[in-house]
Specification:
By secondary structure, this protein is α+β, with helices and mostly antiparallel strands. The chain has a domain at 37-147: 2-Layer Sandwich (Tetrahydropterin Synthase, Chain A). Helix content is 42%, strand content 21%. It is built from six helices and four strands. Strands 1, 2, 3 and 4 form a four-stranded antiparallel beta sheet that branches. A hairpin with a 2-residue loop joins β2 (49-56) and β3 (59-73). α4 (84-98) crosses α5. The protein is flat, with a radius of gyration of 30 Å.
């Protein structure tokens, strides 16, 4: 019994010693002072979901959905004449519709880092200085026109009142079960 108690004390001492040693010698990631100052001067700006119609041959082929957020310099945001979210949304429409930045017909050529850099450069060009420091992609989706119609049609179905298959006494009302439905049987 004494051996078991001493073994338990020894295991506890070794565990506590290893935890103490680990904490003493663990180091936080080293961030330079310049990097810390840059991060303190930035602000996270959440984006809005924008829907951009993809028009080809004079007709809407589908919709591109994007939600982008940004890391921006606080000083640059303070100097803007309009709220940053609205300026960003406007510029995203210009970039995605006007310059055909994304070719949905050939998604194999889509390069996410190039897309993020093009958005960042376009926004900073519109803002007149280096306000946007990073583009964060939260959502990028493409829905075809058929996808949108399919979703719209499934939500507009007329409401159908449920049919009671079991009456109040718990008996199956076989005359109320629609044709083609599988009749459940009790396994009791």
């Amino acid at each position: 019994m004494l051996k078991l108690a001493l073994t338990g004390v020894w295991v506890c001492a070794v565990t506590l010693g290893s935890v103490y040693f680990s904490i003493q010698h663990a180091s936080a990631p080293v961030i330079s002072e310049a990097e810390a100052d840059r991060r303190a001067a930035e602000e996270y700006v959440p984006g809005e979901i924008i829907t951009v119609p993809i028009i080809r041959d004079g007709a809407v082929q589908g919709y591109f959905l994007a939600k982008l957020s940004f890391s921006a310099m606080r000083e640059g945001i303070a100097k803007l004449h309009a709220p940053l979210r609205q300026v960003v949304t406007d510029e995203l429409y210009d970039l995605l519709v006007g310059s055909k930045l994304i070719d949905v017909a050939d998604m194999g050529t889509f390069d996410l880092p190039s897309f993020k850099n093009a958005v960042k450069d376009g926004l900073n060009g519109k803002l007149g200085s280096e306000v946007i420091t990073e583009v964060l992609v939260e959502q990028l989706e493409y829905l075809t026109k058929d996808d949108v119609e399919r979703v719209a049609n499934s939500q507009n179905r007329p409401y159908q009142k449920p049919v009671a298959i079991v009456d109040r006494n718990g008996k199956v009302a076989s005359d109320k079960i629609p044709e083609g439905a599988v009749k459940a049987t009790s396994g009791h």
